[in-house]
């Protein structure tokens, strides 16, 4: 299992698409941070760092990139035909799936750390220029980052299961984006009480966005973990039943 995990981690760190996701995330987070702070309304000079509005850019965008990273874990293999030698090298499909979930989790954590570092490196100097008092709580800031990393791990697992179930990369990515960007919002307008339990809403609750209108952070973590387990389990079942060619 360790050898398979290292193999999957090597695939992740030697493919251009993973670095493209990281660069794209950093660019979006950087631009979003600049936009929020320079707008003026997103700056509270007396609030500690962990309560500054620019961090919401990181909390809302990074999980989506973790989902995309997880999706491409399997869809890249099917797209380029490397799934066959992968399974010939290790015919135990469950171990391959587990290794990919673990590698995607590491990648999701890397995305979370990179996004947080980018936002902080850009945001703190801009805040100081706006008269910020430069206060923060290490424990509170650690909680914010911890919630984000937990969310990226769960979203990456959902992506792995989704990518394995759908297999077609464009269909999986497009479907995920349509649901996350538009689908949940449409359903939430009609069934707000039900929509709280959708994955996007649970993810927002976990990272602390829109508090008071969604689930608690703990409940959001449980719901999102249930989606991750269901996604991986569905992918595992289909992986056992389907022929790989």
Written overview of the protein:
The chain is an all-alpha fold. Helices cover 79% and strands 0% of the residues. The protein contains ten helices and no strands. Helix 5 crosses helix 6, helix 5 packs antiparallel against helix 10 and helix 9 crosses helix 10. The longest helix has 37 residues. The two termini are 23 Å apart.
Structural class by helix and strand composition: mainly alpha
Give a short account of the largest sheet: none
Distance between the termini: 23 Å
Query: What is the string of helix and strand elements?
Result: HHHHHHHHHH
Cα gyration radius (Å): 19 Å
Strand content: under 5%
User: Helicity level, as a percent range?
Assistant: over 70%
Q: What's the number of helices?
A: 10
Q: What overall form do the CA principal axes indicate?
A: globular
Low-confidence region ranges: none
**Averaged pLDDT:** 90
How many distinct beta strands?
A: 0
Keywords:
single chain, 245 residues, mainly alpha, 10 helices, 79% helix
Kindly summarize this structure in a few lines.
The protein is mostly helical and 245 residues long.
Topology:
Layout: H1 2-13, H2 16-38, H3 55-80, H4 83-89, H5 93-129, H6 138-166, H7 169-190, H8 192-195, H9 199-207, H10 217-241
Helix pairs in contact: 1-5, 2-3, 2-5, 3-5, 3-6, 3-7, 5-6, 5-10, 6-10, 9-10
């Amino acid at each position: 299992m360790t050898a398979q995990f290292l193999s999957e981690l090597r695939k992740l760190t030697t493919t251009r698409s993973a670095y493209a996701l990281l660069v794209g995330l950093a660019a979006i987070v950087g631009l979003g941070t600049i936009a929020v702070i320079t707008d003026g309304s997103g700056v509270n000079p007396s609030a500690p760092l962990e309560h500054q509005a620019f961090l919401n850019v990181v909390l809302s965008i990074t999980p989506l990139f973790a989902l995309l990273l997880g999706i491409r874990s399997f869809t890249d293999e099917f797209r380029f035909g490397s799934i066959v030698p992968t399974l010939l090298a290790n015919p135990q499909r469950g171990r391959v799936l587990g290794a990919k979930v673990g590698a995607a989790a590491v990648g999701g954590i890397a995305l979370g750390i990179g996004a947080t570092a980018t936002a902080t490196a850009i945001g703190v100097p801009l805040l100081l220029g706006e008269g910020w008092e430069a206060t923060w709580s290490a424990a509170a800031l650690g909680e914010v980052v911890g919630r984000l990393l937990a969310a990226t791990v769960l979203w990456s697992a959902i992506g792995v299961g989704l990518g394995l179930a759908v297999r077609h990369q464009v269909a999986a990515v497009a479907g995920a984006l349509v649901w996350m960007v538009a689908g949940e919002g449409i359903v939430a307008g009609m069934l707000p009480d039900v929509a709280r339990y959708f994955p996007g809403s649970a993810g927002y609750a976990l990272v602390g966005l829109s508090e008071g209108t969604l689930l608690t952070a703990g409940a959001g973590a449980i719901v999102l973990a249930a989606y991750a387990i269901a996604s991986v389990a569905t992918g595992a079942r289909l992986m056992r039943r389907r022929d790989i060619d």
